Amino acid sequence: MTIGMEKIKKKIKKIPTSILILTVIVLVGIFLRTHNFHAWLEFDNDQARDAALVSDVVTGKTAWPLLGPTMKGTNDSSENLFHVGPMYYYFEIISAKIFGNYPDKLAYPDLIFSILTIPLFYYFLKKYFSANLSLALAGLWTFSYFAIKFSRFAWNTNSMPFFILLFLLGLGEFLFRREKTSWWWALALGIALGVGVQLHAMLLVMFPFFCLGGFFLTVKSGKGMWLRWGSVLLIALVLNAGQIVHELDTNFQNTYAFFQNANDRSGSRADKFSQTFALDAACHVQSNAFMPSALGDKDHCNFLKTAAGWVALDYDSYWQLGFILAALAFSLFGYAALVRNFLKETDRERKIFFGLALGYIILFFIIMFASIQEAPLRYFLPSFFVPYLFLGFLIQAGQKKYPRRYFPVVALGLAILLALNVIYLLTVISQLEAKDRSGSSDVILGELESMRDYIITTAAPSKTAYFSGGSHYVFRFLRPLQYLAGKDNFSIKQEPQLFASMKPGEPVFYIYASYPRKKLTAIKGMPIVTYKNFGQVAVYEVIKTK
């Protein structure tokens, strides 16, 4: 036994310290992303829509889909809406078949890819930064509220960080090693391309554009590059077989919808270029500041409005002014440092690294023109790695200028950023533990299940209930409640006319802000029989008397 322990200790000592630290970081990341995963899962309108589709496939009611979610609105039956590829649904279907057909199980693929992003991000950063600095930046990403939030529910964009990193690393290998590129990297690039273009329309534009550029830059290297690029294309086509079949069967209907939508969006921005440019730039500044610090608005891109308010002297908060100036300085320094490093770098591999990052940022900025007017902060998930590059540049600059003093300053700065994320995470956790998170912008599975149980119990012995309420609450809660109630063979039907067609005595429920936030005694002339608070919202049972 003692000899066996000694052998284990010797093997552990042979493992590089950086790998041991990275393992600890990954384990912490797993805990932060999986703790109370079922009860604290976000399960909103879009997730319920997708879960219903997956359930129909798993139970054999429908075939596997040939298209994925729409990129505009929620009316999936419209022929004018563009659909991304079905890979996101395939991930969910496979997960449901393996682990079970329930909302938290459908989110496992996004959870797994989020965890895998941590070591991949370290490997990506280490292409330029030292191992210690890469560990620090990857560790900060691990604790990022932004990163954790998008790992804890199912959404077709949530796995983008993993496939973006895999794509940039694979393409970088092609550009650097050319004919000596490992076939494993060709496989990785093909998978990243084939899956990535199905996760969001942005990547559908960006990934092929970069691949085309990489092809023309490397194809003259010889026959080996033709074979490698051919394998990448073949893998991507196989992974996109579903939508290819759909396009052939429908005379390229979805492709037409994509170009029609892109034309409508670009045309609507043509007459206000300067305004759109300023908003696009401001949103990038806000996202660059928010991702590593959790400071600023968590949902809306309002940096330009906030800055304009200060210029107009509408705000007197010096904290806001400090945040505006610091965010601007951070982004301006970061972009300048990236351009400078690209122009002056002599190491070919690093120069390719900077060139890819710079090209990615520029193309992403251009693409965001189409939707920046209505873009929430989550639209900037594809640029998640950018502020961490900037932070790395800032730390390097400090190390170069103040070689003896930089370490305590850097350690303090990273500790502050880490603390800011942890503080906000604890705020969210306290709401979740108190079951007070669901509201007009969030719907949490554990709280939703309690609402479902209340409706079913209150409506008994009826197996049907009618449902209405404030429009934004109905939009958020109706479809998730219908899905969960259906699991118990209970039907929840919407009554958009506020129970006008209901007969007296039928069980009817109304969702609104929780009592006593809204002191209601009757709804639309119908007395409230009973109600129950569920954090920020309440479900009211009303009775129709005439």
Describe this structure as you would to a colleague.
The chain has 546 residues and is an alpha/beta fold. It has three domains: 9-266, no CATH class; 275-401, no CATH class; 445-542. Helices cover 63% and strands 6% of the residues. The chain has 22 helices and six strands. The chain has helices at residues 2-14, 17-34, 45-58, 87-99, 103-106, 108-125, 131-143, 145-149, 160-177, 183-196, 201-218, 223-239, 241-249, 253-269, 273-293, 303-311, 318-344, 348-367, 386-401, 406-433, 445-459, 471-487; strands at residues 464-469, 491-494, 508-513, 522-523, 526-534, 537-542. A hairpin with a 2-residue loop joins strand 5 (526-534) and strand 6. Helix 21 crosses helix 22 (471-487). The relative contact order is 0.09. Mean pLDDT is 88; it is low at 73-78.
Radius of gyration: 26 Å
Mean pLDDT: 88
Biggest sheet layout: 6 strands, mixed
Widest beta sheet: strand line-up: 2-1-3-6-5-4
Give, in order, the helices and strands: HHHHHHHHHHHHHHHHHHHHHEHEEEEE
Total helices: the number is 22
Quaternary organisation: single chain
Helix percentage range: 55-70%
Class by SSE composition: alpha/beta
Low-confidence stretches: 73-78
For the termini, the CA-CA separation is 81 Å
What is the number of independent domains?
Answer: 3
- Hey, roughly how much beta strand do the residues contain? 5-15%
Secondary structure tally: strands: 6
Shape: globular
